[in-house]
Amino acid sequence: MLTDLDNTLIAWNNPDGTQQLHDWLQEMKQAGITVMVVSNNNHDRISRALARLDLPFVARALKPFPVGINRAVRQLGLSKHAVVMVGDQLLTDIAAGNAANVRTVLVQPLVETDAWNTRINRFF
Ligand SMILES: [Mg+2]
Question: Domain 2-123 is classified in which CATH homologous superfamily?
Fold first, then answer.
């Protein structure tokens, strides 16, 4: 399972993630499903954000382009049929998933307060 980071796994006002998130990640681990973060953020920002979650990630994914998702799929060594991309934004996460030819799941953003550029994307 590939997933966006900001406002999909964690919210800016709770960078450690909720108990619910930690429980779910544990369940995924037990089920043998790898959860990999595909984010447009840079390496440092993501590794800081994921310090307590211990998840593999692809940084500077260039969503809505398929580059980062393709890189993640290659790293996992899986067929695209076995991969799903989860995210809270149509114009980046879902567009990138579609461009990469993987299934996508659009989720509600964790919090409604966004950075200004996210607010513009969400409007469209
Ligand atoms: Mg997001």
Answer: HAD superfamily/HAD-like (3.40.50.1000)
Q: Which two tokens stand for residue 86?
A: 């989860």
Kindly report, residue by residue over 71-107, the tens digit of the pLDDT: 999 999 999 999 999 999 999 999 999 999 999 999 9
pTM of the full predicted structure?
0.89
The two counts, helices (H) then strands (E), for the chain are 5, 5
Question: Separation of 4 CA from ligand 1 center, angstroms?
Answer: 6
- Report which DSSP code applies to 118: H
Tell me the C-alpha to C-alpha distance, in Å, between residue 10 and each of 2, 26, 41, 55, 65.
14, 16, 14, 13, 23
- The residue among 50, 18, 45, 48 whose CA lies nearest residue 35 is 50
CB 85 within 8 Å of CB 38: yes
User: What is the domain partition of the chain in residue ranges?
Assistant: 2-123
- Centre of ligand 1 from the C-alpha of residue 36, in Å: 14
Q: Tokens for 116?
A: 């200004």
